[in-house]
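Lab notebook page, bench 4
Experiment: in silico fold of construct C2
Operator: M.H.
Input chain length: 212 residues
Purpose: comparison with the prior construct
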Amino acid sequence: MASRPEGVLEEWYAKGRLVGGIGSEPLERIFAHARNYIDVIRELAGDGELSLLDLGSGVGIPGLLLALESSSLSITLVDSMSRRTKVALEFVAKLGLTERVEVINGRAEDLLASRAEEFDIVVARCFGPPPLLAELSVGFLRSGGLLVVSEPPNAEGVRGVRWPASGLKKLGYGKPMFFDREFHFVALMRQRKVVSEPRAYARMIKNPAWKV
C-alpha cells in the first residue's frame, strides 16, 4: 500500500462530502474498497503497467485511491459534474499524481469518439444500469481489456439477470467473472469487436442491450 500523505486525504474526504461526491462511508472503508479493486485487477491482468479509465469518478472514487495504491496504473477520471472534478483536480495535484492521473469534466459518451480502444481497464462504481455501462465501456477497451464493476451486496441472487452471458456476448464480452471479497465485483473481458461504430447514447438508454 502506498503511503498516505498526512492530512491531505482527510481534506479531500471533507471537500468531497461537501460537493456530494462522498456519502457517509468512512475514509478507511473507501480505501478498503479501492484495495479490493486492485486485488481483482491484479488477479486478472497481472502486475504490469496498465491504463485505466474510471467512469463517473466524481471526486476520484475509486480512481484517485487506485493511483495511490498502485504506481503502475495510469488513470483517467471522467465525470460530468464540474464541482466534483474540480475537487479531483485539486487533490491529484496535492497528492503529486499529475503525471499519472488525468481528470476530465465531461460525459463519457462524448469522450468515446476520441479515446476508443485506448484502455486496458475500465472501472465503475455507481455509473448506471448494467446494460448501459457494459455497452458504453466496451468501446473504450482494447481487445482483452477488462471492465471491473463494484456490485451491490444484495445482487448475488440476480447476477444472471444483471449480467446475462447471452447479452454480454452480443457486445463482445466473455462470460462474467464474479469476485466476493470484503466487497463484491463483476469483471468482463472484451474478447472481440462486434460493431465498427457504437450506438448513440440515446439509443442505449431507449433500447438497452438486455432488460434488467
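Observations: The domain at 8-206 is CATH 3.40.50.150 (Rossmann fold). The longest strand covers residues 141-151.
Next step: discuss at group meeting.
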